[in-house]
Automatic annotation (TrEMBL):
The chain crosses the membrane at residues 20-42. It comes from Methanohalarchaeum thermophilum. Keywords: Membrane, Transmembrane, Transmembrane helix. Residues 12-90 form the Archaeal Type IV pilin N-terminal domain. This is Pilin/Flagellin PilA family.
């Protein structure tokens, strides 16, 4: 039978040393995480607003005369500058519009009863104008919160 090396025979000092090393490592990791939050390196994700938005009406027209009317039924008020509207023709797979809501309002590409306070509130209608809407085709309007990157609502409908 072989003799065991002397290191393996004396086990008294090993356990406390490993315990101390693990405690120091955990303390350093926790300090790094706390420092990351304190100094802004690690940011907490922003919550996406919640809102129920539906397609209230379609108006078809010749060329770019069509309109989609959206109704903000309930939920959070949406800040115009932090909201993007994307309109898809689901039937053909074409993206028809992708713009910041504040830009749409300021460029006169919308109508409706937005209150003029920089937000889209419950009960207000938004009319997206100058769209090529064809009767019988399916459309999806995706409302995106640009500050969090999340989708607020994605109503669909057939013109």
């Amino acid at each position: 039978m072989k003799k065991q090396p002397k290191i393996l025979k004396e086990k008294e000092g090993v356990s406390p040393v490993i315990g101390v090393i693990l405690m120091v490592a955990i303390t350093v990791i926790m300090a790094a995480i706390v420092a990351g939050f304190v100094f802004g390196v690690i940011q907490t994700p922003q919550a996406t607003p919640t809102a129920s938005i539906t397609i209230d009406d379609f108006t078809t027209g010749n060329g770019n005369d069509g309109e989609i009317t959206l109704l903000h039924q309930s939920g959070d008020a949406l800040v115009l500058n932090d909201t993007e509207i994307v309109v898809y023709n689901s039937t053909d797979g074409d993206q028809m519009l992708s713009k910041n809501l504040d830009t749409l309002v300021n460029d006169g590409e919308t109508a409706g009863d937005l209150g003029g306070d920089g937000s889209w509130d419950t009960g207000e209608r938004l009319v997206l104008e100058n769209l090529n809407i064809t009767a019988g085709k399916d459309y999806e309007v995706r409302i995106i919160d640009t500050s969090s990157g999340g989708t607020i609502s994605a109503p669909t409908g057939t013109a």
